[in-house]
Amino acid sequence: MKINWFKYASPTAFYPIAGRLVPWFAVAALILILFSLYWGFFETPERLGGSNPQKEYYRIIFIHVPAAWMSMWLYLIMAGWAAIGLVFNTRLSYMMANAIAPTGAIFTFIALWTGSFWGRPSWGTYWDWDPRLTSELILFFLYIGYIALHSAIDDTRRADRASALLVIVGLVMLPIIFWSINCPDPNQCAALHQRSSMSQIESNILTAMLTMTLGFWAYSFATTFARLRGIILTREADSAWVRDVIERESVA
Amino acid sequence: MIQQALDFLRQGGYALYVWSAFGMTFLLLIMEVIQLRRSRRTILTRVGRLVRLRTPRPKSTTKTKAPAGPLGEPRGEQR
């Protein structure tokens, strides 16, 4: 089966597809997040760890880790679309990168915020210039910088290209965030974070964490596509098909 | 029953940390959804006004009678 992918690369073709996908992802996000909240609060142990256990506050893990994953993953996808936009000069790719940024920034902020409320009871401080905290904060500034740079340039095409470049340069932060705790030599990075050990994690905790991650995924798809539709309409306001869409949708 | 609910809310004395984290998370997510819905409405009105400004009147009345968009999307599928 041969699919003509370029057909869907046009805003005209993708607008109705995105519209049809939004409610599905929204429902999936709601179900997954509610399931994860139930599982995380009622089916998990009250303590985490052995001799010096983390008490109930460890439950912040169910939003902290998924949000931190999303912050990096969304950045990677945004950079991917920005790169595709620069290489193939496709309008939709830039719009996609544009639509992802606010959601990515929100998840980065959530990761920082929840982290500080987890850090207070477990490390005794809301904030410290630990390598991972610092690099995640820089990631947040990159998201904000991308949004600010894009809105600061009036010519949309130039704004697209300039901000795409910023995102791609900012990619350097992702391996830094990742290896800030998982570095090959533990003596090289004195971090407050422990090394991540996904295989040792208790299965109920893992269940809640992974369903929350999937829920955040679905949520990001829904919000990104919803925002993308707005961006497409605004940018393509001159073309004939938008007129038809407006007539159909603003009446209903 | 009430005691159980209170115990749940106390989170073993860590209520401040747990609920601040969860509260901010879902506050932000819900606010984003509300903002998106509101911006969709404003974009539809604004682009609609632009489109009406640009199209001459007689043309726009014939357009309304068109059965479907150029892509053959079903009518009134959105919203």
Q: What brief labels describe this structure?
A:
heterodimer, A: 252 residues, mainly alpha, 9 helices, 0% strand, globular, B: 79 residues, 3 helices, 72% helix, rod-shaped
Write the layout of secondary structure elements.
The complex is a heterodimer of chains A (252) and B (79).
Chain A: H1 5-8, H2 11-42, H3 61-88, H4 91-123, H5 131-152, H6 156-170, H7 173-179, H8 203-235, H9 240-251
Helix pairs in contact in A: 2-8, 3-4, 3-5, 3-6, 3-8, 4-5, 4-8, 5-6, 5-7
Chain B: H1 2-10, H2 15-54, H3 57-64
Structure description:
The complex is a heterodimer of chains A (252) and B (79). Chain A is an all-alpha fold. Chain A has one domain (20-251). Chain A is built from nine helices and no strands. Chain A has helices spanning 5-8, 11-42, 61-88, 91-123, 131-152, 156-170, 173-179, 203-235, 240-251. In chain A, helix 3 (61-88) crosses helix 5. The radius of gyration of chain A is 21 Å and the shape is globular. The two termini of chain A are 37 Å apart. The mean pLDDT of chain A is 89. Chain B has 79 residues and is mostly helical. Chain B has a domain at 19-55. Chain B has three helices and no strands. Chain B has helices at 2-10, 15-54, 57-64. The two termini of chain B are 42 Å apart. The model of chain B has no long low-confidence stretch (mean pLDDT 79). Chains A and B meet through helix 2, helix 3, helix 4, helix 8 and helix 9 of A and helix 2 and helix 3 of B.
Distance between the termini of chain B: 42 Å
- Count of helical segments of chain B? 3
Report the helical percentage of chain B.
over 70%
How would you classify the quaternary structure?
heterodimer
- Give a count of the beta strands of chain B, DSSP E runs of length 2 or more: 0
How would you state the average pLDDT of chain B, rounded?
79
Number of strands of chain A: 0
How many strands, which pairing sense, and closed or not: the largest β-sheet of chain A? Answer: none
Q: Beta-strand level of the residues of chain A, as a percent range? A: under 5%
- Mean pLDDT of chain A equals 89
